[in-house]
C-alpha cells in the first residue's frame, strides 16, 4: 500500500514539475524582444564560428567578452559587448578592443597606444611568439608604447587523451612566471578551451 502511495506521489510530483517547465516556456514568449533581436543581429553580422554556451556564469562572461577575427567585425558589435578581442588584424588604438599579437612583426605594425595581448606558442606550432622570444617581444611592446593587457596561448589537442595538454599547461605556467617576474600589472592569462578546463579539473580530483 505504501508503495502505491509513493507511486502516486511521484506521478503527481512529475506532473507538477512538467507544468512548471511548461509555464516557464510559455512565459519565454513574452521575453522575446529587443535583446533577442540584438543577438540575431550579432550572429548575422559575424562571419566566423559562433559558440553560445551556458546560462549561468559562462553566460555572464559571454555577455561581456566577444572574440572576432578582424577589426571590422569588432566595430560592428561594439555596442553589445564591454570587451572585444580581435584574433587576426593590425592593432589600432581603441579603448574597448584588444588585438592579439601573433608575431614580432605584428608588434612592429601595431599602432602606438593599442590595447594588445601577446600570444605565445606553447606547442600549437601555428601562431604566437616562441618562448625564447618573450623578452624581445616585451621590450618591443614597451618601445612601441603598446598597452599590454593579456598573455594567451592555444592548446592543440585538449580533447585527445594524451599528455600533451599537461605538457603545454606546464609550458604556459613557465610563461606566466616569466611575465610575473617582470612585475607587469593587470595582465590576464588565458589558454583553456572547454576540453582543457574539464581535463585539468578531472586530474585535480584524482
Structural description of this entry:
By secondary structure, this protein is of the alpha/beta class. It has a single domain, classed as Alpha-Beta Barrel (TIM Barrel). Helices cover 47% and strands 13% of the residues. It is built from 8 helices and 6 strands. A 6-stranded parallel sheet has the order 1-2-3-4-5-6.
List the helices and strands and how they pair.
Layout: H1 2-28, H2 34-45, H3 57-62, E1 65-68, H4 71-76, E2 83-86, E3 97-101, H5 104-109, E4 115-119, H6 134-143, E5 147-152, H7 164-181, E6 188-190, H8 194-205
Parallel strand pairs: 1-2, 2-3, 3-4, 4-5, 5-6
Quick structural overview:
The protein has 206 residues and is α/β, with parallel strands linked by helices. 47% of the residues lie in helices and 13% in strands.
Q: How many strand units? A: 6
**Can you tell me the CATH superfamily?**
Alanine racemase
Residues in helices, as a percent range: 40-55%
N-to-C CA distance: 45 Å
Tell me the number of helical segments per DSSP (H or I, 4 or more residues long). Answer: 8
Mean pLDDT across every amino acid position:
80
What is the strand arrangement across the widest sheet? 1-2-3-4-5-6
